[in-house]
Amino acid sequence: MTNNLARTGTISRRDLIGRSIGLLTASALPAAAVAQTGDDGLYTPAVSLAIDRGLSSLVARQIADGSFGDGRGTGLGRNVAVVSLAGLAMLSRGSLPDRGPHGAALDRCVDYIADACEDETGFIIRRESVSRGAMYGHGFATLFLAEVYGTSDRKDLQRKLNHAVDLIVRSQNSEGGWRYEPEPRDADLSVTICQMMALRAARNAGTFVPGETIERAVDYVRRCQNPDGGFMYQLTGGESRFPLTAGAIVALQNAGRYRGKELDDGYDFLSNRAGHNFSPQRNNYFFYAHYYSVQALWQRGGSEWKAWYEQLRDILLSAQLNDGSWLDYTDRTYATAMACIILNTPRSLLPIFQR
Q: HSE on the CB side for 126, CA within 13 Å?
């Protein structure tokens, strides 16, 4: 991605819409033709079918208000992060609000997230369904609004997106990071990565983001790196973690840092730890980790990207359930949305995924 779209909302919205229409055309091609669209043959007919089945399973569980259920009244389907990820999965495949195979479902996701924006604070939250820190939900929801902005008929999205970004800027703490609540107290790397992704997407959509906010966030991420190349959870110290390292690489790249020793060392850490992090059964954070790892390796490209994606692809295809969904320790909707986003990376529409 380049920053030349970040300054003018009109251009970035037109760019988003144009790429959306292009992908809608591509997604209508026969599966055999899809594999020949310039993605090195990684996007096979089996991948295309798996994503379609996954998205259909999401739509089948969507409730009228735009959230998702599992039929038992349990799960995280009303959490704004999970709804946003489901919407991102539909958007990445080529649907637009009220257009494309899942346009109606995507429109309901947009309405659910937009209606969760608090006018007085800018906070995007459904307070009855918060899980593991409200700023996670806010970050993913802001990212979703930024990615879909310009494709929806809702006239209030720009204002809601601007307010959501303002809340992120106000909540940055003195170290340069963010934590579970929208208060500038402590910080951790996981929440910080989430906010940095949201800010980059918002900037691409034409929303003003102070440069100082990004610089301080980049400094925080860099200071979380350990000598082994991996990244720790907080500046107070701790072991390097695979998911955090993948996310830190992506956060730095989205802040415009595409080269440097910290990235090379981070990639080496991911490579050295890959064998222990490619099992959904052994890793509670499998989908979270590889939502970021696939973006990190996609940006790097080359043979490493190809081998990484092929391994993830084969794992995910074998783990898909009969109803088209995926399941992890967190939630079926969450796992299915993440799996679809990961599998769709070679052809993803999402501007945040573009090289």
A: 22
* Integer angstrom CA distances of residue 227 from 42, 177, 217, 250: 34, 20, 20, 19
In angstroms, rounded to a whole number, what is the distance separating the alpha carbons of residues 5 and 351?
Answer: 10
Residue 5: count of CB within 10 angstroms of its CB:
20
CB burial class (10 A; 0-12, 13-18, 19+) of residue 74? exposed
The CA-based dihedral angle spanning residues 79, 81, 86, 92, taken in that order and rounded to the nearest 10 degrees = 170
Task: Provide the 8-state DSSP code for 1.
Answer: -
Bridge partners of 62? Answer: 68
Report in angstroms the alpha-carbon separations of 149 from 114, 161, 229, 281, 341.
11, 8, 36, 36, 19
Angle at 109 between CA 103 and CA 111, to 5 degrees: 105
- Residue 31 is predicted with a pLDDT of 36
Q: Is the pLDDT of residue 12 over 50?
A: no
User: Alpha-carbon distance 74 to 68, whole Å?
Assistant: 10
Residues contacting 322, CB < 8 A, separation 6+: none
Q: Look at residue 237 and give its three-state secondary structure.
A: coil
pLDDT in tens, 294-333: 999 999 999 999 999 999 999 999 999 999 999 987 789 9
- Mean pLDDT is lowest, of 48-52, 94-98, 345-349, for 345-349
Give the alpha-carbon dihedral of 53, 93, 307, 284, to 10 degrees. -60
Amino acid occupying residue 91: L
